[in-house]
């Protein structure tokens, strides 16, 4: 079975944790332990988030007196792909002796006219108090929004149109290689209509939407979205909270989910199932094997035929 895994950025750096290298390495070792069992019997492509990491690099870049201007988000996104991809690849090689593993920096084409550029919604970086967040917003020219537990920077998140290196990923899979790619949604670029020349843009593409597109382009059997909760829940965090265990795309869209957290995951899963007739599942990282085998998480399946 060919599986595309979307690994949440918060799974690699949990909320409230110090962004030290050792902390991220420990979290990556935990993630790889959960994924290794799946990788032994399946073709696996692993994508990952980068919200905490790119926010940290952006803050450091903005504060660096040696720079006349901070590095743009597309360049910082490439840096996070290299950093996280290397850590994942090394850990996967250790967990799967003899298996070829490649970490590939990939580029995601977006539309220059995407309205998302005028409405930043993608959370990056750490959580701040309201007061500190507003000070940083004024000082750095940031957009900020309320997230669980505090306030965070938000940046544009245009929709992915295509992934430049899909054919390369397909070739690697065909050779038996486990591929880590499309980190942080891929480096966001626009493509010149006539020449095809790629130009980086100031944005962070949602990694779940990119994972769904990649799974579609690779003709994957399963899109597996791993996060820090065991299921999708309706009315999450309220006394009315209920787990969603088996659902169709239409049923998912009948419910309301938080824009900055579960909403992109449910929408990405719904799109993949609708466009391909395949399966998608959402659940906790530690239960990855069980989710893929239908005994945990939220399964998103096609509509059953009538009659």
General description of the model:
- The chain contains ten helices and 17 strands.
- With 307 residues, it is α/β, with parallel strands linked by helices.
- It has an eight-stranded mixed sheet, sandwiched between helices.
- A hairpin with a 6-residue loop joins β10 and β11.
- Keywords: Kinase, Transferase.
- Belongs to the carbamate kinase family.
- Pfam families: AA_kinase.
- InterPro entries: AceGlu_kinase-like_sf, Asp/Glu/Uridylate_kinase, Carb_kinase.
- One of its GO terms (molecular function) is kinase activity.
How are the SSEs ordered, and which strands pair?
Blueprint (H helix, E strand, L loop, with lengths): L1 E6 L1 H4 L8 H21 L1 E6 L2 H13 L9 H23 L5 E4 L2 E3 L12 E7 L1 H11 L2 E5 L2 E6 L6 E2 L2 H9 L3 E4 L5 E5 L6 E3 L6 H11 L4 E6 L4 E3 L7 E3 L1 E2 L1 H5 L8 H15 L2 E6 L3 H5 L5 E3 L7
Parallel strand pairs: 1-2, 1-12, 2-9, 3-9, 4-10, 12-16, 15-17
Antiparallel strand pairs: 4-8, 5-7, 6-7, 10-11, 13-14, 16-17
Helix pairs in contact: 2-4, 3-4, 7-9
Helix content: 25-40%
Q: H/E series, N to C?
A: EHHEHHEEEHEEEHEEEHEEEEHHEHE
Counting helices, strands and paired strands, the structural category is alpha/beta
Note poorly predicted spans: none
Cα radius of gyration in angstroms = 19 Å
- Strand fraction equals 15-25%
Q: What's the number of extended β-strand segments?
A: 17
Task: Report the principal-axis shape.
Answer: globular
* Contiguous helical run count: 10
Q: Roughly how many Å apart are the termini?
A: 29 Å
Q: What is the overall pLDDT average? A: 92
Strand order of the largest sheet: 3-9-2-1-12-16-17-15
Largest sheet: 8 strands, mixed
């Amino acid at each position: 079975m060919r599986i595309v895994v979307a690994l949440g950025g918060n799974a690699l750096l949990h909320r409230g944790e110090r962004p030290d290298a050792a902390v991220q390495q420990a979290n990556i070792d935990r993630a790889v332990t959960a994924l290794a069992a799946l990788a032994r019997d399946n073709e696996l492509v692993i994508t990952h988030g980068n919200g905490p990491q790119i926010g940290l690099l952006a803050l450091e870049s903005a504060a660096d007196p040696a720079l006349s201007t901070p590095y743009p988000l597309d360049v910082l996104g490439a840096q996070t792909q290299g950093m996280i991809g290397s850590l994942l690849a090394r850990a996967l090689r250790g967990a799967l002796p003899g298996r070829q593993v490649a970490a590939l920096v990939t580029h995601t084409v977006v539309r220059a006219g995407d309205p998302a550029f005028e409405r930043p919604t993608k959370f990056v970086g750490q959580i701040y108090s309201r007061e500190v967040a507003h000070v940083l917003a004024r000082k750095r020219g940031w957009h900020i929004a309320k997230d669980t537990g505090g306030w965070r920077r938000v940046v544009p998140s245009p929709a992915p149109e295509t992934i430049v290196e899909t054919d390369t990923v397909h070739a690697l899979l065909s050779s038996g290689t486990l591929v880590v790619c499309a980190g942080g949604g891929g480096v966001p670029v626009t493509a010149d209509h006539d020449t095809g020349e790629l130009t980086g843009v100031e944005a962070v593409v949602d990694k779940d939407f990119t994972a769904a597109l990649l799974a579609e382009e690779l003709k994957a059997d399963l899109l597996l979205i791993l996060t820090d909760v065991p299921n999708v829940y309706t009315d999450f965090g309220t006394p009315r909270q209920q787990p969603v265990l088996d659902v169709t795309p239409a049923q998912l869209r009948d419910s309301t989910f938080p824009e900055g957290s579960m909403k992109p995951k449910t929408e990405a899963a719904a799109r993949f199932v609708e466009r391909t007739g395949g399966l998608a599942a959402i659940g906790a990282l530690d239960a990855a094997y069980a989710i893929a085998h239908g005994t945990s998480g939220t399964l998103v399946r096609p509509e059953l035929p009538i009659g």
